[in-house]
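Recall the central idea of this unit: under ordinary conditions, the amino acid sequence of a chain determines the structure it adopts. In this exercise we apply that idea directly, starting from the sequence alone.
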Amino acid sequence: MGWFTKRLLVLLPALAALTAGCEQDPSLAYLDEGEVYLWQPGADQPRPLTHRDDVDAFFWSPSGRHIAYHVAKPSADSFWCFTGVDTGVEVKTRSEPLFSAVGRTVAYIKDRNQELILLDEAGGEQKLIAEWVWAAQWNPSGTRLAYVEEGDLKVFELDGGTSRYLAGGVAVGPDFVTDDLVLFISDSGTLTAVRADGSAVYRLVDEVGDYYVARDYSGRVRGSRLVCVDRDRDAYLMDFDGVDQTRTGTDFYRMAWDSTGSRYFLVEEEGERMHTGVFSASGEGLLEVKDHWDPAAAGTLAWSSGSDELACVDGEGSLYVIDLDGAQTLVAKGVYDFAWVPYRRQLVVLMPRTVAGGETIPVGETPDGAGGVTTVTGATPGAVGEETVEGAGEPEVAPEKVEPVAAELGEKPVSAEPGEKPVADETTAPEVPGEIVGEATVAVEPAVEVPVPVEVLPVTVPPVGADTAVYLYDLEGKPRRMLSRSGHLPLLSPRGNRFLSVEPLREGVYNAVIGSLDEDEERYLGKFRVSAFPAAWQSEGQILGGRLVSVLVTLALAAIGIVVLYIFIRRILLKRKKAAQPTQESVPELEDSM
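Accordingly, the structure predicted from this sequence is:
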């Protein structure tokens, strides 16, 4: 074995150990009596992060490296700060800090003169960008900052340190949907998109009521389509720049994109009932959900994190899972609330802990009404327990093509010819000299991919004094085990492996524990006098940073393995080739024919 091969084999265990260490559990921050505490995996107990007693709100930065918090003062001197989780450095920003995607650059708006200020994560020198600014947002990669200055939309480029005028008359926004495309609502009520380089402006929908874009946990956009609802409650599906518009529904009630931006459900009112359709991002009808459940009564319909199933609770408290083929599965009855577990085909379910007669539900057994799960497919009614459930009907046809809503700014919509897709015209943005504000002095990192969101919607509230518990369910309809005796759903970590639960301990005292969904493991957090307190798991940015390193190390291991295998096979082939060659003594001499 050669020198190079030996060195590669020595490196394999070290790289494997590095890979194992990259994947780390998230930390948990919570607020207790004006102090932000931080619980970290492996720590003996939580530690105070803020060292003050007047904090009333906080949130994690997208990168997971900082926590921003609001300091409440009895006078008008309240302000915001942010602190590095690892460094402990506190930076005062007066107003709410705006973190870029990777957290290296921070912006905030000063109350006085509404000054837009830029600084790096360690504080240091502050840079004035503009005055009289009332809204700002970073693009996904953190290279541009869009802001509204006295009603004008402008964008600041970190690379070069210049500001550029994009549009005027802004009422709501800005909203970056890609690195170079910004949405806003004008003061005339028109949803508009504009290129960040100022090259084009797209008029999408007049008299807009609201619009919906698929976003993940940290607000990053998924997919390339949006649904816009006008004031007449007509819903339109289109690209971000208004291309390929279709009317996807009328009498809009509510809708939600899945976690990937590839599908959405749309709930519409039909008299006294509700109608729900599931569509692809291209507008193709995938599924019609029959109205055996009433979303107005239950108030819930949620995508799984894998975006292949929907879960809903009917007016009787029965929890169903519906896949995209129309198969409907009764999971449990008597449900108060539920949530999908991130990245898993599992649910956490809040329901009564006792059955008829007061018998406690044993852990691992099926609560009343959840046993003998019946799956119903197609349009054939099926019996689920003592109920009759209508299955899903035929897939709904694609939404009709309508005249386009998008048109050139200042002109009426142009009618589309039959069979022709409406296309949003574009117009060159007004030429306004860019405002030079000097060179940027902050560091910019590449964008970090983040995990997909899980929609969690409130259902019903358990009666006061009800004996409730939270169970972990598989989709087969049987609980794996009881997680806690809480009256609220647990706070699930972004990776779906841990949860925070608050359980009643005695009158007026509650016990908070951190548990694992995979093992019967609990870590004591503390005793509290409230059943629900502000808490949040660390943003996925830092966790994903470990994942990216893990992926790179895994690829390196694979490459090394391929090299070692190639060297090994090559050595074997060379030995065989050498063995197959005849020796000089065995080669017969040719007789001279001359």
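The mean pLDDT is 75.
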